[in-house]
Amino acid sequence: MRKYEVMVILDSDVDDRQVQPTIDGHLKTVTDEGGTIDNIDVWGRRRFAYEINKKPEGIYAVIDLTCEPATVKELERLMAINEKVVRTKVLRPGK
Question: Which GO MF terms are attached to this record (predicted)?
């Protein structure tokens, strides 16, 4: 098991009440595979430095999790095909 930090940017059209359920739906993949969710930090709406998909802002969230490499790869794949997710970035934090 390895620790990962996942940055997710959701579309600004997503209602604030739907942010947490949207993220939790994807994180079910991690828990089903035996991983753990260590922390979810929703930053809220932030302006982009440049427009993405003709939108000036998005909803940012940072998720700390522990899981196998194959699980985080599947999580990233599922987020890529979701239309509500604008961008994702998966990092392995330094020691």
Answer: small ribosomal subunit rRNA binding; structural constituent of ribosome
Q: Is 53 helix (H, G, I), strand (E, B) or coil?
A: coil
Using an 8 Å Cβ cutoff, are 84 and 22 in contact?
yes
Query: In b/e form, how buried is each residue of 13-51, taking b as 16+ CB within 10 angstroms?
Result: ebeeeebeebbeebbebbeeeebebeebeeeeeeeeeee
- pLDDT tens, 38-49? 999 999 899 999
What would the pLDDT profile of 38-81 be if each residue is shown by its tens digit?
999 999 899 999 998 899 999 999 999 999 999 999 999 999 99
